[in-house]
Amino acid sequence: MYKVRIDQFEGPFDLLLYLLENARMDIYDIRVTEITEQYIGYLKEMDELNVEVGSEFIVLAAALIRLKSRMLLPRVTEVDETIVEEDPRTELAERLTEYLQTKKIAEMLQRREKEYSGIYTKPAEDISEYLNSPEELLKTDPDKFVRTFRSFLEKKKRLAEVRNRYERIRRNRSSVEERIAAMASMLERKWKNQDSVSFSELLAPNADRYDRTLSFMSLLEMIKMQEVNATQDRVYGEIEITKRTKDQTNVQ
């Protein structure tokens, strides 16, 4: 027995096609007795469940019963002394074929509607003012135009300089740990020929504010770790860095 719900079908032909598909019957070779019993059995089951069935389903049931009775009668007629075998199922097959075609078109239209429902168009605007008088777009003071263009170039140049400086700083920026290692290596080389090294000797000739700050913070960290001694004779004077001996305990 086929158990399906009425609200899954758009009409009686939809239900009939469902039954034919499940019974693996060809539209042009319907086993009328078998499919009629299944169709009527389905309607009876709905009636037992107190489900209201549309009148169009009853009409098709009557048509199937009539077709079933016609299949029991002789299907041979004589026309102009010619014997012609009639198939009562032909009309039903044609109606099912037409229904299938209509259903496919409806499904295609539903897909198109869904696709185009997500497309939004912009209302047309009247641009005849610009098309009829295109020279209006170029009417301006030449001096003002030149000043505006120069301002644009200067702004672009400043932006490029800022980007280049940012890229250079980001490329060269190093951590305190890396700077301490570099300064320690430099101090070891210089202490071989001199007792003290000035802080300025540890800076690159083109050192900027960031490099100076990072080097000074690294020097303070080295003093804190008791790796070097540093002295400064006067405020803002040169900082002299000497090697710390093992017996020294205080920073000068």
From TrEMBL:
It comes from Mogibacterium kristiansenii. PANTHER family: SEGREGATION AND CONDENSATION PROTEIN A (PTHR33969:SF2). Residues 152-179 form a coiled coil. GO terms for biological process: cell division; chromosome segregation; DNA replication. Belongs to the ScpA family. This is Segregation and condensation protein A. InterPro entries: ScpA (IPR003768), ScpA-like_C (IPR023093). It is found in: Cytoplasm. Participates in chromosomal partition during cell division. May act via the formation of a condensin-like complex containing Smc and ScpB that pull DNA away from mid-cell into both cell halves.
